[in-house]
Design brief:
Strand content: under 5%
Distance between the termini: 13 Å
Keywords: Membrane, Transmembrane, Transmembrane helix
Largest sheet: none
Number of helices: 4
InterPro entries: TMEM205-like
Main location: membrane
Radius of gyration: 17 Å
Subcellular location: Membrane
Protein name: DUF4149 domain-containing protein
Length: about 140
């Protein structure tokens, strides 16, 4: 089970860092903005689903190994925080961004650009917080 736990942590948290720090910047340097944004959006959606599965596994594993006292550990609450970031970003913020993109396609970009930029910044901040919680989790993990 230790190996599966390590793979799960690596897959989720490593994926967050690789997509956020390496893949997305490369996409925006190599492709036009629209294509890079579409590909990055698909990658962020994929890592969100990975996070949901891995996060639930890590929480269940923590409770299985430690019982209710596991809820007193910081690692438990870091995973809860990361899952909350995933849920908020994927199910609340991303749909708002998608709707604003559609509106931008049907109207002058200047009219909706501020809303898009604001929600994109919120999404980026949530992703950063999630990634830093993942780093803290890795540093605290057994």
């Amino acid at each position: 089970m230790d190996g599966l736990r390590a793979i799960t942590r690596t897959f989720w948290i490593g994926g967050l860092w690789v997509i956020g720090l390496i893949v997305t910047p490369v996409l925006f340097k190599m492709l036009d903005t629209v294509t890079a944004g579409m590909v990055a959006g698909k990658l962020f959606a994929a890592i969100a689903w990975v996070g949901l599965v891995c996060g639930v596994f890590l929480l269940v594993d923590n409770i299985w190994r430690n019982g209710v006292r596991g809820m007193k550990e910081s690692s438990f609450w870091l995973i809860v925080g990361m899952l909350l970031c995933t849920v908020i970003n994927h199910f609340a913020v991303t749909p708002i961004i998608a709707e604003l993109k559609l509106q931008m396609n049907h109207a002058a970009e200047g009219l909706f650009g501020g809303g898009f930029a604001t929600w994109h910044a919120i999404s980026s901040l949530i992703y950063l917080v999630q990634s830093l919680m993942g780093l803290a989790y890795i540093l605290r993990s057994d």
